[in-house]
Specification:
Layout (H helix, E strand, L loop, with lengths): L2 H18 L21 H15 L5 H6 L3 H12 L1
Helix pairs in contact: 1-2, 1-4
């Protein structure tokens, strides 16, 4: 397994864990799941962005967060910013 795959897996795992802490069931939090389908509101997304910033030292602006629609979008953004 390459370093990139490991890093991507770690990022995805952390983001999924953070989202689950907001209430959705673990099995519903997939890369394809939209934040709307997971019943996450804008405050949840702000909190998620703060967790990402603290965990991975990635700066996310308001526009970045507004553009995120799915769990996969969030993972891909963090992977792009950390590589």
């Amino acid at each position: 397994m390459s370093a990139t795959t490991t890093t991507t897996a770690k990022i995805e795992c952390m983001i999924v864990e953070a989202i689950v802490s907001f209430g959705p069931a673990t099995e519903t939090v997939t890369r394809e799941a939209t934040f709307e389908s997971l019943d996450l509101d804008s405050l949840d997304l702000v909190e998620l962005s703060q967790i990402i910033e603290e965990e991975f030292r990635v700066q996310l602006g308001t526009a970045d967060v507004a553009d995120l629609k799915t769990v996969g979008d969030a993972v891909d953004l963090v992977v792009a910013r950390t590589s």
